[in-house]
Amino acid sequence: MGSSTILDILSSLIIAGFLLLMVIHMNSSLVYSNYTTTNDLTVQENLVSLVRMIEDDFRRIGYCRDFTKVPDPSKAILGAGRHNIKFQTDLSNIGNVDTLEYSIGTISGLTGTPNPRDMYLYRDVNNVRRGGISLGVTKFDFVYFDAQGDSLSFPIDNPNAIYEIQLSVLLESPYAYDTTYSFAFWRQLRLAARNLKNR
Q: Domain residues for 45?
């Protein structure tokens, strides 16, 4: 066997090695892209579902089909904190006043996911705690403003002063790819229920 044949075999092995590395790298990139795209889509769909529910509920703060049962809508907010709010509304639109409270659990409250930051989101109706919503919520923060547009400081002793609400929500995927979690952020800058302006 001549030296040129050995060089041809070595060259072929080197080229085959490079091609194999390229295929492995491309496969890894495709797996990463597929996983992150799926996670991104799931997180965004969860955020859209959550935002629709929140906007629908918050739009009806102080609303009751029988308006005589909530004569002063400015008093419809019963409690407000950094991560929770409780208010009166008519959820079923039949003229009964319900209380609705949004709050979050503790960090690492979810035991079924490896994400150390996700928490349950609770939507309590008439002071009854149901199972928490597990959508990957990692941030659920309120800022409240008075009628002049000034932010109210915590703790809020007088919820009747709340005129507008800012809500920031961050969702993360429950599972990471190589320690990276997909996320989606939403902030409503001035979420104002029409009834709060009826003063």
A: 39-197
Q: What pLDDT digit, counting tens, does each position of 5-29 carry?
A: 777 787 888 888 878 888 887 877 7
Residue 177 Ramachandran class (φ > 0 left, ψ -120 to 50 alpha, else beta): beta
pLDDT digits (tens, 9 = 90+) for 106-141: 765 556 778 888 888 999 999 888 778 888 899 999
Q: Do the domain assignments include residue 24?
A: no
Instruction: Please check whether residue 127 is in contact with residue 188, taking contact to mean a CB–CB distance below 8 angstroms.
Output: no
Long-range contacts formed by 173-178: CB under 8 A, 24+ apart: 173/39, 173/40, 173/42, 173/43, 173/115, 173/136, 174/110, 174/112, 174/113, 174/114, 174/115, 174/118, 174/136, 175/39, 175/113, 175/114, 175/115, 176/114, 176/115, 177/32, 177/35, 177/36, 177/39, 178/32
Answer yes or no: pTM beyond 0.85.
no
Contact 32, 26 (CB under 8 A): no
What is the total count of domains within the chain?
1
Query: Does 89 fall in a domain?
Result: yes
